Amino acid sequence: MQRRLRNRARARRWPLMWALSAVVAISWAMALPAAAQRVDSDLKAAWQDIEAWDLRGARARLEDLKKARTGTDPLVARLAAQVLFEEGRLDEAVAALDAVGPAVDEGDEIARLIRDTRTITRRYATVESAHFRLRFPPGKDALLAPYALETLESIRAALEADLGHAPPGKVIVEIYETAEALSKVSTLPLSAIRTTGTVAICKFNKLMITSPKALLQGYEWRDTLAHEYVHLVVSQMSRNRVPIWVHEGLAKFYETRWDGDAGRGLSPASAAFLFQEQKKGKLIPFEKMHPSLALLPSQDEAALAYAEAFSAIEFLHARGSNAMIARLIGAFGQGRDDREAIREATGASFQSFLRDWKRYLAKRPAPREALPLAAERKRFADEREKTPGDENALPEDKKLRVGDFLDIGDEEARRRAHLGELLRARSRNKAAIEEFKKAHAIVGDRSPMLSLRFAQASRAVGDDKRAEALLKSSLKLFPGLPQTNLALGELYFEGGRLLEARARFIAVIGVDPFDPKPHERLIDIYRSLSQAALEAQAREALKLITGQAPDLASPASAQAGTPATPTEEARSAIVAIESHPFGQVEIDGAPTGRSTPTKIELSAGRHRVRVVNAERDFVREVEVELRPGETRSLRFEP
């Protein structure tokens, strides 16, 4: 996940001086144009305050400069534009840039960014909490607001207790609809965003994240918000002097603090990857993580770097708790380098720290066998490979779907899993279970898709106990997968275990909030628990997603086309449709008003089933021949 370019390494804000494509370390004294080098110390000090994330200090110096100077000073006007921009006053910032004139504005990448940000966010809606101002595009992203503000207020309170700092004023948080928009407002190249799966950045005194709807299966956006907030706190505490490996390690370590203990941010798959790479001697040196993890050559290398940085902070925290972490940040704030800061915080040399940390890694509890990182890779919706719809839905010609189980390396297990899924799709669940059982005996829980399909087949024959065991065991290795959490939530919900179901549905929303199913279930749960405010929130979220108010009186299965009469019942069939991401269902070219997952009663015969999610560039279509009395399952995926 993300994340921010370290400012010392890229001279992020001095106007007229940043070569974006290089993203290299530049001394401001060397980089300033001749005119800017002649300005007095007060103007330089104001820019240094901005560089140190001390916006209040920069504002105070700006006001003093405006009082001391008469007429229009282009350098003071440019400083004013920057301060206004970082305060979130975009219209005023652009007006200040216009006052500067082309002589100073020409070639200024940050000036261009200010204008682009104003253009992109011009129509944004704004909601506020006690300490945050959240801005987002009008429409479906509004459903993120209550969850986002809850997360942010929680992480703020937790970090103030742990590290003793909370940002003054209200922190600005912005949500962008696409990866391209994030690139335009952050100066991070779009190629780097796509390569490393970057979805958020803390920069310019604000938090910036991509909407989960921009990714095919969402991402852990609530943890990401907390992660970026940690970056903001650390930058302010240290005057932006913390090196990137410490910055990212702290953000990754504390990102789960918003809903519990710190130190839960490293997934089992990443932990296993870290163990394997450490054993091979292929760790990434800390100094090579400069200037940003977002600029590493692949998502796997970014995952390794995050795991290393996380484990280093985890090791330090285990030795000295939050007090040691605060001392470490404070030492960087005093201008110490890595070696000096580690010595001041721990009392040991940097070499001793590295040696002890690597010994700690070798013994750290983690899966000793490799787990597929593919389950955690981010896929942007506009990068989806365009393939014919018929190849991505359950086929009519008994062709095996290779894409379902690519995470299974063993050929026999993969063949068994494919055969089991083919049988399950045709409601031959007992036979499917036998194949899934054989595949699972070989690979265990290392394939989340196998565990999910095995659990679904088990539920279909009434074996909820085995289904629950499979899903819970899978979540221990792959805790963030929305499909697994949704399946377990459904099991709990239908069994009347409402509090456990609620936790699973909230987990789904924390990754893929635009799936209507968890919101539908939460409406029922909150109504049962007499939590009217939360029920209203879930209702509003569902309305934003589907464009319609929920019809709670309607049956679980919907009808499309001509309704079947009792005399026609024998000639009808049921089609159960699933998809991920969710989509609107069309039958024979006509909208049904239903979104997946759903069951639809149709007349026997040939029908064309289509699932569409335009926002995620997802369209799947298949033609099916339904026999009288048949129940057919269709599943559509990228």
Supply database-style keywords.
Neutral Protease, domain 2, four-stranded mixed β-sheet, disordered N terminus, alpha/beta
How would a crystallographer describe the biggest sheet? 5 strands, mixed
For the record, the CATH architecture of the domain at 129-179 and 197-363 stands as Orthogonal Bundle
**What would CATH call the homologous superfamily of the domain at 129-179 and 197-363?**
Neutral Protease Domain 2
Name the shape in a single word: globular
**What are the low-pLDDT stretches, counting only 5+ consecutive residues below 50?**
1-38, 385-402, 551-570
Distance between the termini: 21 Å
Q: What structural category do the secondary elements indicate?
A: alpha/beta
CATH class of the domain at 129-179 and 197-363, named: Mainly Alpha
- Total number of strands: 13
CATH topology grouping of the domain at 129-179 and 197-363: Neutral Protease, domain 2
Query: What's the gyration radius in Å?
Result: 27 Å
Helix percentage = 40-55%
User: Would you tell me the overall average pLDDT?
Assistant: 86
Strand order of the largest sheet: 1-2-3-5-4
Strand % is 5-15%
Give the number of helices: 26
What's the short version?
The chain is an alpha/beta fold and 638 residues long. The protein is built from 26 helices and 13 strands. The chain is globular, with a radius of gyration of 27 Å.
Overview of this structure, please?
The chain is an alpha/beta fold and 638 residues long. Among the domains are: 7-121, no CATH class; 129-179 and 197-363, Orthogonal Bundle (Neutral Protease, domain 2), CATH 1.10.390; 557-636, Immunoglobulin-like (Sandwich). The chain is 51% helix and 12% strand. The chain has 26 helices and 13 strands. The strands form three sheets. The protein has a five-stranded mixed beta sheet with strand order 1-2-3-5-4. Strands 6-10-7-13 form a four-stranded mixed beta sheet, with no helix packed on it. Strand 1 (125-128) and strand 2 (132-136) form a beta hairpin. The chain is globular, with a radius of gyration of 27 Å. The relative contact order is 0.07. Mean pLDDT is 86; it is low at 1-38, 385-402 and 551-570.
